[in-house]
Design goal:
Helix content: 40-55%
Number of helices: 12
Bound molecules: alpha-D-galactopyranose
Mean pLDDT: 92
Largest sheet: 6 strands, mixed
Distance between the termini: 24 Å
Length: 417
């Protein structure tokens, strides 16, 4: 989903992502500004509530979440803010500070269908629809103002962030206290799959719902069991490089990759008992791969299998404090995504290959679905300036336009603010 930013708001965003350097409590400041905007649009009074859900970055474990494999994402401190108030009728009124030119977009609880012209509102509408599908009663309309400070279309999951913030708001406003955060994640995924037509896995919504400050989530997508793993970077930081190549999952080859994996799995099931590619070791895969009757599908499946094993190893390395090996596994992940899974593209390859050449880079890879979007690098703090300068220059020289860089912090999951 594309979120364009106006200058006025970009200022707050910069403050909020610059490690809080210019702002003591960016969330409070942004919330206050947004409530002011909400009141000027929809009127004062009533029970106005505020919520936040982060974006996420996946450190390793890419395209494994729909293959019953492991992922290792973390929530960020940037994300989506929602200011919401119930209405007495069944109308829905949406406004995004990121799309001010679109003005207020109206809809109704009696018209919860996905429509191209509904643009970004398809995400919150999809979640309201999904609550109904799951048997939860949403019996009155709402005024909803959103604002996101996740770099747009970047692969840091702005859409899942909107889905989770909507879920958290609905649970609170309609007193649906029995709904767990895991269920909010699942409802978000359900809405993305069934309402918005993207066959995504559970990683994004799960990381965004369950995130914890300074922790990454080691999630087994086969059964949703997970553990938090501390990201104790002492002299390093997580640096995101946004390629500025716009993409949306809907128009990418995401669904095609998923179908290729499903087909490879069903071919393997002719010769071995297996419920998901993530169940296989590399040795098992090598022993049975000839059951997959296409070279391309073999490579897709090999990525799913090796990436899952790399993710398990990477988390073990982090636990042992072996950041260097963790970084090497990140690099290997990118190579597999580039050569076997073919989801990187020249922009992400240019960023990662330039990053690998820099001093102080522990590891660098594409993150998210691919086909544009972002890379994630772990960079020694004293090398960040030269990293941004050199990678930025190499990218511009090669691709023709600039990349954006963000030094991010690991934050908490979706919540009322
Ligand atoms: C997108 C999807 C996730 C996951 C990643 C790739 O972000 O939403 O479910 O499949 O791509 O790892």
């Amino acid at each position: 989903m594309y979120i364009g930013l106006t200058t006025e708001w970009r200022y707050d965003i910069l403050k909020s992502i610059n490690n809080g350097e210019c702002e003591v409590n960016p969330i409070e400041t942004i919330k206050k500004q947004l409530i002011g905007k909400f009141e000027s649009l929809f009127g004062k009074g009533g029970d106005i509530r505020a919520y936040f859900a982060p974006g996420r970055v996946n450190l390793i474990g890419e395209h494994t979440d729909y293959n019953a494999g492991h992922v290792f994402p973390c929530a960020l401190t940037i994300g989506t803010y929602a200011i919401v108030r119930k209405r007495t009728d069944r109308n829905l009124r949406f406004y995004s500070v990121n799309f001010e030119h679109l003005g207020v977009i109206s809809s109704s609880l009696d018209d919860l269908t996905a429509a191209r012209e509904a643009g970004w509102t398809n995400y919150p509408k999809g979640v309201i629809w999904a609550f109904g599908q799951k048997g939860y009663v949403i019996d009155c309309g709402m005024d909803i103002l959103l604002y996101g400070n996740i770099p747009n279309g970047s692969g840091l999951s702005s859409s899942a962030s909107v889905e989770v913030v909507t879920g958290v708001a609905l649970r609170d406003l309609f007193g649906l206290t029995e709904i767990t955060m895991t269920e909010i994640a699942l409802i978000g995924q359900f809405s993305e799959n069934k309402f918005n037509g993207v066959n995504c896995g559970i990683m994004d919504q799960f990381a965004i719902a369950m995130g914890k400050k300074d922790m990454a989530i080691f999630l087994d997508t086969a059964d949703l069991s997970f553990v938090y793993a501390p990201i104790c970077l002492k002299q390093e930081k997580i640096v995101i490089a946004c390629s500025n190549k716009k993409r949306g999952l809907g128009d990418s080859k995401y669904n095609e990759r998923r179908a290729e994996c499903e087909m490879a799995l069903s071919e393997l099931q002719n010769v071995i008992e297996v419920n998901g590619l993530g169940e296989l070791t590399e040795e098992q895969f090598e022993a049975h791969k000839d059951a997959i009757h296409s070279e391309v599908r073999q490579r897709r499946a090999r990525h799913a299998v090796t990436e899952n094993q790399r993710t398990i190893r990477a988390v073990a390395c982090l636990k042992e404090g072996n950041l260097e090996e963790f970084g090497k596994l990140m690099n290997a992940s990118h190579i597999s995504l580039r050569d076997d899974y073919e989801v990187t593209g020249k922009e992400l390859d240019a960023l990662v290959e330039a990053a690998w050449k820099q001093d102080g880079v522990i590891g660098s890879r594409m993150t998210g679905a691919g086909f544009g979007g972002c890379t994630v690098s772990i960079v020694r703090e004293d090398a960040i300036d030269s990293f941004i300068q050199n990678v930025g220059k190499a990218y511009k020289d090669q691709i023709g336009y600039a990349a954006d860089f963000y030094v991010v912090e690991v934050g908490d999951g979706g919540r009322a603010i």
